[in-house]
TrEMBL record:
It comes from the Eukaryota. Residues 46-196 form the Pectinesterase inhibitor domain. One of its GO terms (biological process) is pectin catabolic process. This is Pectinesterase 5. Pathway: Glycan metabolism; pectin degradation; 2-dehydro-3-deoxy-D-gluconate from pectin: step 1/5. It comes from Zea mays. One of its GO terms (molecular function) is enzyme inhibitor activity. The lineage of its organism: Eukaryota, Viridiplantae, Streptophyta, Embryophyta, Tracheophyta.
Length: 351
């Protein structure tokens, strides 16, 4: 039976977010998902998929999808999308500032309460200033946004810390609870913005045709001395909407050997529950399973367990020392050239 490498890659860069649809490998001569749209760089198939993908790493997906669906207004421009993310967070904090002014007002004569109210006022003003700074940055070049992603993460972390400190400043438990309620929406939306800013890549596996199976990767290496290989670091591997309902019925794997010395390393990534416990699929009998190199390090998520992984001689659960050689610095000499590309990157470990 003929084998086809199917799928494509679509991406949208929002600060440090790279949302990709990974190529899907199936056992068939037919092309699964021929009706799937593969847009160009920095665009997505639909605004709905854009918002869903952006909100995937957040803790508060419902509020994220609701607010961004309204705020982005269908735009696919990465700079405009980020502007919407920052604006939503800013408006929520500004609203919280107004609503918080009356909290503790009845106990203003109490020195501790009044001190807490004054602290909150200053902290929330600082949060607004930081978010305004993000909005100003969002008006600039997208490459500047990407290069300053660490600054953006620091600002958003600061915004959330300001709100937590504000709440903790109240001794009266009722006032503390009231302030927490007022700041809940602002906290959720700021958390969403931070998660969107901090996520490096999303690999979405599509639903294949009936009686087919998925392999996220299929690396080929014909000589053990070749330096090539696939390294997936700080990514999230998830099923798409069409695959999700049948994710336990349709076998999905992290990889299979396309050539004899196939090499794949997955590290510091989050693997969803759609991946089969064995992790990898054979390609043609025992082809390559003794000569390939598949390794996992410090992954998380329901699909990251390695206790039931394949027992092939070429599969390894490695430690930090062995994993380090596959980070961008040593593996592709990233320190020598990546900085000149303008591409956001880390040369070592993320965690």
């Amino acid at each position: 039976m003929a084998n086809a490498l199917l799928g494509g890659l679509w991406a949208i860069v929002v600060v440090a977010v790279v949302v990709g649809v990974v190529a899907t490998v199936t056992h068939s001569g037919k092309k699964a998902g021929d009706d799937f749209t593969v847009p160009g760089e920095a665009s997505i198939a639909t605004s709905g998929k854009s918002v869903e993908s952006l909100c995937a790493p957040t803790l508060y997906k419902e509020s994220c999808e609701k607010t961004l669906s309204q705020a982005t207004n269908g735009t696919e421009n990465p700079k405009e999308v980020f502007h919407s993310v920052a604006k939503v967070a800013l408006e929520s904090v500004k609203t919280a500032v107004e609503q918080s002014k009356t909290i503790g007002e009845a106990k203003a004569s109490d020195s501790m309460t009044e001190s807490a109210r004054e602290d909150c006022k200053k902290l929330l003003e600082d949060a607004v200033d930081d978010l305004r700074g993000m909005l100003e940055m969002a008006g600039g070049d997208i490459k500047v946004l990407i290069s300053r992603s660490d600054d953006l993460e620091t600002w958003l972390t600061g915004v959330m810390t300001f709100m937590d400190t504000c709440i903790d400043g109240f001794v009266d438990e009722k006032l503390k609870a009231d302030m927490h309620t007022v700041l809940r929406n602002a906290t959720e939306l700021s958390s969403n913005a931070l998660a969107i800013t901090n996520s490096n890549c999303l690999i979405v596996t599509r639903r294949p045709m009936d009686n087919q199976q998925n392999s996220v990767t299929a690396h080929g290496r014909t000589d053990p001395n070749m330096k090539s290989g696939l390294v997936i670091q700080n990514c999230r591997l998830v099923p798409d909407q069409k695959l999700f309902p049948d994710r336990f019925k349709i076998p999905s794997y992290l990889g299979r050997p396309w050539k004899e010395f196939s090499r794949l390393v997955i590290m510091e990534s989050t693997i969803a529950d759609f991946i089969k416990p064995e992790g990898y699929m054979p390609w043609n009998g025992d082809f390559g399973i003794k000569t390939l190199y598949y390794a996992e390090y410090n992954n998380r998520g329901p699909g990251a367990g390695t206790s039931k992984r394949v027992t092939w001689p070429g599969f390894h659960v490695i430690g930090r020392k062995d994993a380090e050689q596959f980070t961008a610095g040593p593996f592709i000499d990233g320190g020598l050239w990546l900085k000149f590309t303008g591409t956001p990157h880390i040369l070592g470990f993320k965690f």
